[in-house]
Write a structure and sequence with these properties.
Length: 101
């Protein structure tokens, strides 16, 4: 077999198909925090559809559920835990000087 024909042959790698992140029984709802929290990054951002491996309809429903949960204060808009830890460990100065007598 010459090189030109060899390029068009499919490789024989075996791919394991991943399970979908949302099963048919899972209900996409703003109250289902265990499901919603899987689709939010550490900073509190909504992960993209490519990262989540969701269909377009599922991604839309997840986005709506996350936004509803944020409005109802079930989820924070921003997750600033790392920034809070840093600010607590380093004391801040107020800029006022104390005069020595």
């Amino acid at each position: 077999m010459d090189k030109s024909k060899r390029l068009f042959l499919k490789s024989k790698r075996s791919f394991r198909r991943r399970l979908p992140p949302i099963q048919s029984g899972d209900r996409i709802d703003y109250r289902n925090m265990s499901l919603i929290s899987r689709f939010i990054s550490e900073q509190g951002k909504i992960l993209s559809r490519r990262v989540n491996r969701l269909t377009l309809k599922q991604q839309r429903l997840i986005t709506i559920a996350i936004k509803q949960a944020r409005i109802l204060s079930l989820l924070p808009f921003l997750n600033n835990e790392k920034q809070l830890e840093r600010s607590e460990s380093t004391p801040r100065t107020t800029g006022l000087r104390i005069k020595n007598k």
